[in-house]
Amino acid sequence: MRPARFQDFVLDLVKNTPGVSRVQTVAEAGESRFPYGLVIVAAGGDARWQIIGQLADGEKHDMPDTPVEYDPLPAGPEPQPGDNPEAWLAAVIGRSESREIASIARWSTREGERPDNLGLTVKFHNGSQAFVRKA
Q1: What backbone torsions phi and psi does residue 54 show, to the nearest 5 degrees?
Q2: 38: phi then psi, degrees, rounded to nearest 5
Q3: Contacts (Cβ under 8 Å, ≥6 apart) of 3
Q4: Residue 48 contacts residue 121 (beta carbons within 8 Å)
């Protein structure tokens, strides 16, 4: 899933999540430092997320974004308003039951990682990845 489609996918998920008062793309929010991302205002505060994509091996930008689907990830925990932003966003995406998502890894929980380095690596079954960094 490429960044533009992933951004729309996550925007849809977030806007339908209880406790969210506003979500918009970074472009709609007037952010010009990066082309893809979201600004989310929820009960736990507001957060800006940059989205960067990595194509699957052998894929080119002029090729179509072709989904590859398998069984969805097992539904994780419900997103809680008091969760840190990274855990909350991982829960929102993890509960989507998207058949394209192969795995979701939180950056702050990696071995040896700084706990303030918040972000996600979302791997897709077609071999592409999305890196979602708290900006």
Answers
A1: -130, 125
A2: -135, 150
A3: 35, 36, 51, 52, 53, 130
A4: no
Digit-coded pLDDT (tens) for 22-70: 999 999 999 999 999 999 998 778 899 999 999 999 999 999 998 999 9
Please list the alpha-helical segments (H only) found in 1-135: 3-15, 85-94
What are 29's two structure tokens? Answer: 């929010």
Q: Quick one: 99 exposed, middle or buried, by C-beta within 10 A (0-12, 13-18, 19+)?
A: middle
CA distance 117 to 38: 17
Tell how strand 101-106 and strand 37-42 pair up: unpaired
- Whether this prediction's pTM lies above 0.90 is answered by yes
Residue 75: which region, alpha, beta or left (left: phi > 0; alpha: psi -120 to 50)? beta
Summarised one tens digit per residue, pLDDT across range 97-117 is 999 999 999 999 999 888 789
Token pair of 42 as six digits: 């929820």
